[in-house]
Design a protein that fits this description.
The chain is mainly α. It is built from seven helices and two strands, in the order ααβαβαααα.
């Protein structure tokens, strides 16, 4: 039977809302809280194309795998956490928990682990996809493009690593319960990429 991707107007609304809030929160953080400046425009675009896309693809990966296992799966934003992220960004730190994919249906431990690991894997792949852009920007000496690429590499590797922490409701706990091999197959490359790229970003 062919797989059919299912969504709703509510989910699309929540995804756009979370994307805007998270991008703005990171833009405020990166610009040092200078909300009324030209810098905020640049950092918002930078955040939307790196953090925003990383968040969106991460959540959609969870959703698609869950739906393939016959579950109901839709993203729901948490307005309280989004507002908190905005407030925290003015103080120079940020814990981004914009919401989550709500999943209902019976799955095995292995299926639950695969649903959980899908998001971090997508972030790791996105991180590596920014590498050719980084090399091109370096070769052509295009500062803005280099900034976009380097941040795209780092933030997606960070998102992969952070979500793989085996605590609380993070993806890593579910993955660890399923397969330690799969867990470290994502965590180790994410750490390597994250620490390799840190010298190129300003955080």
């Amino acid at each position: 039977m062919a797989f059919v991707f299912k969504t709703s107007k509510q989910e699309i609304h929540d995804l756009i809302e979370a994307w805007i809030f998270i991008s703005l929160a990171f833009a405020i953080l990166l610009s040092g809280g200078r909300l009324f400046s030209l810098t905020i425009i640049k950092t918002f675009i930078l955040a939307a194309l790196t953090v925003g896309i990383g968040f969106l693809f991460h959540e959609m990966a969870h959703k698609i795998v869950a739906q393939r296992y016959g579950c109901f799966a839709e993203f729901r934003a948490s307005i309280q956490m989004l507002v908190l992220a905005l407030i925290m960004s003015f103080f120079g730190f940020l814990i981004a928990a914009p919401g989550a994919v709500m999943i209902s249906g019976r799955v095995s431990r292995a299926q639950n682990g695969k649903i959980a690991i899908a998001g971090p894997i997508v972030n790791l792949v996105l991180s590596l996809l920014f590498v050719p852009l980084f090399l091109l920007a370096t070769m052509l000496n295009i500062g803005l493009l280099l900034e976009l690429a380097s941040y795209g590499i780092w933030i997606n590797a960070f998102l992969a690593f952070f979500n793989m922490l085996p605590f609380f409701v993070l993806d890593g706990k579910k993955v660890m319960m399923w397969s330690r091999e799969a867990y470290f197959a994502v965590v180790i490359p994410a750490l390597i990429v994250m620490f390799s790229a840190i010298k190129y970003v300003s955080i």
